């Protein structure tokens, strides 16, 4: 079993309290960073670790930190994005519920590296218990002198606040999050300027995912180079995967990046295979917004190589036959699931969550949802599939923020890979309302590539 | 700074947006804009009709931009090369945006007061498809009165946010805004509170469609039957410029609006007294007829007359002169 970095002590009773966390070596990274390292050295360690953003886009965290503008006399902010709302993703909530001090510790180190005197954790409004847990943890850390004025006797001071959001998916987009944090309507800003130049209250700001910030702790403890040894290629370190769907053992798993997808899915150490002895039909590998893949394409790439759980391998094949790491929301579908219904459900979500600011996304998401609803309930037409692909193309890339892309990709990929199932819903409209299409050929071995 | 738009190069100040650079060149290469309003700070970027392709980022960094960009909010870089109407990708994307804007817009132009001076109508005419592919019920709302002079017909709104910016920047305080989210979002006041600021009438002028209409003009006449005349008065309000366009039908002033430039943007904002209360010729100093583009339907009944007058009909010299004149006028 691979070594766990984030969830090592997750099963220790009382790890959510300061004392137990501290006795297990917690807050060592704060001591090390504040007493022996300069902020630049911390950034350098994170750069060396090759840590990539765990929130979805996979942008190197160290690089993001080094882009932060540092004009004299202007406040800088670190904001932790805990607005985890992607269907299928629940890793951050798990982390915050059971081991909140890891996030607090990461926040202190990261704020120190960036020179932020005030930092915020923006938590999704629905996660009220987690907000209470974090507030309690912050109070504990403050009482022990890890937050507030002159932390550990150094001249570094930090105030950390938890801000509940209103529960909107769009506020997970960094500029919408900043707007919401400022107390405005959560509409994404038009970029440029990027938050690294003008973010919260117009000051340079870094927005990082919960897991990215938590991962800073082992990076500082062990050193960036040590962290970079885990993983494969440019996907370094460990990643939390929240596995859900028709799995024998759904839950949050910490994996070394580069783990074979087949092993992750079928080994008893992880998901343990498909529940009730059924067969795998399809997989959404990284949260609802990444392209869905049929079983055969998920386990093997088109070149018949085993697919690995890493940023590169999952993206192998691009949008034609690949998917994305995303935020690690792993959803498995067994042979009894209906892809049309699932696609409609995703489209319904994006329709509901579109902020309504720019026209392609505002109108297009609703349109796609209506067409998919029609298909699912047996009123579809053969031309609907082409219509959906065309509408998704009109949305993709033409919007202010990535929500438009996120809404377009699942629809386009479902039609690309499962077109016969959609067509079956049109030709056998009545039957489609009483039973599902089944696994069909989606798990068959891939044909050899012919040049 | 040098910027090239559709192979036409122009020298502009640093900080100019692509859209404004294109407007300096003028002509067909100007991207259409539904939400951008040059007089309102922070507007733009939302409707996505002004998307353009940047095929060369700048002299220093010649890489093209990966996505189409909103020209109203992207500033030019030295040596930037932009493709608007010369890029099939842009035309395709713009078609898509127009389609999206129209799927929830009622096609009630025959009864809409904005018809004839509606930006969405022009945009749909230029870029839209003849038939809709949308087969579902359109979004509808009840009409609400915001204040005693303005009516909001939310069904027609394309959520450009211009009126929100006007309320923020021109009036003393804003009491209307966007409620809800996604395609349910609507412009509204809180529990139909009246918008009764001195400058609130400007929301009518900035509205690109017929969502915000002047209640003193509603259903009075079609704009192309009215005659626009420029006029001014000494307005008691120090913030009001008093320069307006009067829209005449016969001897009556049917409505008063701010003067609008060729992109349909008000040159200067006017107060509600000038707009709603001064509807007599005696209130105004007339400057002369307003120039209206001969492409506009407003000009169709007044300026370019195809039928020669009776005296011309009988005089071959005048007939010839009239013909030449007409050809000269319509050549552009």
UniProtKB/TrEMBL annotation, chain A:
UniProt keywords, alphabetically: 4Fe-4S, Flavoprotein, FMN, Iron, Iron-sulfur, Metal-binding, NAD, Oxidoreductase, Quinone, Translocase
Record has Mitochondrion as a keyword: no
Reaction catalyzed: a quinone + NADH + 5 H(+)(in) = a quinol + NAD(+) + 4 H(+)(out)
EC code: 7.1.1.-
Domain NADH-ubiquinone oxidoreductase 51kDa subunit iron-sulphur binding: 340-385
Enzyme kind, highest EC tier: translocase
Single GO molecular function: oxidoreductase activity
Pfam families: Complex1_51K, NADH_4Fe-4S
Cofactor: [4Fe-4S] cluster; FMN
Cross-referenced Gene3D superfamilies: 3.10.20.600, 6.10.250.1450, NADH-ubiquinone oxidoreductase 51kDa subunit (3.40.50.11540), NADH-ubiquinone oxidoreductase 51kDa subunit, iron-sulphur binding domain (1.20.1440.230)
Family as reported in the entry's similarity comment: Belongs to the complex I 51 kDa subunit family.
Physiological role: NDH-1 shuttles electrons from NADH, via FMN and iron-sulfur (Fe-S) centers, to quinones in the respiratory chain.
Protein name: NADH-quinone oxidoreductase subunit F
Lineage per the UniProt record: Bacteria, Pseudomonadati, Bacteroidota, Sphingobacteriia, Sphingobacteriales
Gene symbol of the encoding locus: nuoF
From TrEMBL, chain B:
Domain of life: Bacteria
Pfam families in the record: Fer2_4, Fer4_Nqo3, NADH-G_4Fe-4S_3
Keywords for this protein: 4Fe-4S, Iron, Iron-sulfur, Metal-binding
SMART domains reported for this sequence: NADH-G_4Fe-4S_3 (SM00929)
CDD domains recorded: fer2 (cd00207)
Record domain 4Fe-4S His(Cys)3-ligated-type: where: 89-128
InterPro entries the UniProt entry points to: 2Fe-2S_ferredoxin-like_sf, 2Fe-2S_ferredoxin-type, NADH_UbQ_OxRdtase_ferredoxin, NADH_UbQ_OxRdtase_Gsu_4Fe4S-bd, Prok_molybdopt-oxidoreductase
Domain annotation 2Fe-2S ferredoxin-type: ranges: 1-88
Designated name of the protein: (2Fe-2S)-binding protein
Record lineage: Bacteria, Pseudomonadati, Bacteroidota, Sphingobacteriia, Sphingobacteriales
């Amino acid at each position: 079993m691979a070594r766990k970095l984030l969830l090592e002590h997750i099963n220790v009773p009382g790890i959510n309290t300061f004392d137990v966390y501290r006795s297990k070596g917690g807050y060592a990274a704060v001591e090390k960073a504040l007493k022996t390292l300069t902020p630049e050295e911390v950034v350098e360690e994170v750069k060396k670790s090759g840590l990539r953003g765990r929130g979805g886009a996979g942008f190197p965290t160290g690089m993001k930190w080094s882009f932060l503008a540092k004009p004299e006399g202007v406040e800088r902010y670190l904001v932790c994005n805990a607005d985890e709302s992607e269907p299928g993703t629940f890793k951050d909530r798990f982390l915050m519920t059971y081991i909140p001090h890891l996030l607090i510790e990461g926040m202190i180190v990261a704020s120190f590296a960036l020179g932020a005197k005030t930092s915020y954790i923006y938590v999704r409004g629905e996660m009220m218990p987690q907000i209470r847990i974090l507030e309690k943890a912050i109070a504990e850390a403050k009482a022990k002198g890890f937050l507030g004025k002159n932390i550990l006797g150094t001249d570094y001071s930090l105030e950390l606040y938890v801000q509940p959001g209103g529960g909107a998916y769009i506020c997970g987009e960094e500029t919408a999050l900043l707007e919401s944090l400022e107390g405005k309507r959560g509409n994404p800003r038009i970029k440029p300027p990027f938050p690294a130049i003008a973010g919260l209250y117009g000051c340079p700001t870094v927005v990082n995912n919960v897991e990215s910030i938590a991962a800073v702790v082992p990076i500082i403890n062990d050193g960036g180079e040590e962290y970079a040894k885990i993983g494969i290629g440019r996907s370094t370190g460990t990643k939390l995967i929240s596995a859900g769907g028709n799995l024998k053992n759904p839950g949050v798993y910490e994996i070394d990046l580069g783990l074979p997808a087949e092993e992750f899915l079928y080994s008893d150490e992880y998901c343990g295979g498909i529940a009730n002895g059924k067969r795998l039909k399809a997989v959404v590998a990284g949260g609802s917004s990444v392209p869905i893949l049929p079983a055969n394409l998920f386990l093997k790439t088109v070149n018949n190589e085993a697919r690995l759980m890493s940023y590169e391998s999952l993206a192998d094949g691009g949008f034609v036959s690949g998917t994305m790491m995303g935020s690690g929301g792993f959803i498995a579908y067994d042979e009894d699931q209906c892809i049309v219904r699932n696609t409609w459900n995703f489209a319904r979500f994006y329709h509901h969550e579109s902020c309504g600011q720019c026209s392609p996304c505002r109108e297009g998401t609703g349109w796609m949802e209506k067409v998919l609803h029609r298909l699912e309930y047996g009123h579809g037409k053969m031309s609907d599939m082409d219509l959906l692909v065309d509408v998704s193309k009109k949305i993709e890339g033409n919007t202010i923020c990535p929500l438009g892309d996120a809404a377009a990709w699942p629809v386009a990929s479902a039609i690309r890979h499962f077109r016969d199932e959609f067509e079956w819903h049109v030709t056998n409209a009545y039957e489609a309302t009483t039973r599902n299409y089944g696994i069909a050929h989606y798990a068959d071995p891939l044909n050899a590539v012919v040049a | 700074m040098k910027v090239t738009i559709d192979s036409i190069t122009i020298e502009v100040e640093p900080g100019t947006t692509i859209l404004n650079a294109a407007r300096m060149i003028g002509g067909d290469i100007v991207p259409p804009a539904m939400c951008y309003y040059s007089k309102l700070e922070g507007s733009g970027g939302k409707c996505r009709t002004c998307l353009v392709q940047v095929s060369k980022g700048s002299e220093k960094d010649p890489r093209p931009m990966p996505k189409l960009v909103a020209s109203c909010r992207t500033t030019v870089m030295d040596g930037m090369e932009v493709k608007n109407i010369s890029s099939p990708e842009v035309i395709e994307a713009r078609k898509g945006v127009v389609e999206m804007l129209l799927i929830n817009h009622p096609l009630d132009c025959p009864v809409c007061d904005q018809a004839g001076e509606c930006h969405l109508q022009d945009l749909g005419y230029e870029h839209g498809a003849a038939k809709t592919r949308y087969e579902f019920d359109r979004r509808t709302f009840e009409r609400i009165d915001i204040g005693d002079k303005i009516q909001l017909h939310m069904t027609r709104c394309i959520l450009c946010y211009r009126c929100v910016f006007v309320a923020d920047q021109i009036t003393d305080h804003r009491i209307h805004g966007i409620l809800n989210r996604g395609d349910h979002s609507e412009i509204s006041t809180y529990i139909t509170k009246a918008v009764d600021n001195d400058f609130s009438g400007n929301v009518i002028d900035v509205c690109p469609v017929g969502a915000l209409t002047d209640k003193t003009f509603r259903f009075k006449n079609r704009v192309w039957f009215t005659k626009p005349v420029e006029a001014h008065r000494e307005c008691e309000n120090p913030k009001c410029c008093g320069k307006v366009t009067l829209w005449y039908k016969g001897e009556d002033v049917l409505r008063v609006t701010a003067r609008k430039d060729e992109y349909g943007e008000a040159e200067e904002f006017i107060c509600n007294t000038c707009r709603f209360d001064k509807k007599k010729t005696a209130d105004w100093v007339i400057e002369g007829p307003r120039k209206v583009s001969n492409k506009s339907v407003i000009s169709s009944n007044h300026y370019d007359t195809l039928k020669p007058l009776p005296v011309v009909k009988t005089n071959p010299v005048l007939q010839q002169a009239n013909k030449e004149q007409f050809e000269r006028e319509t050549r552009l």
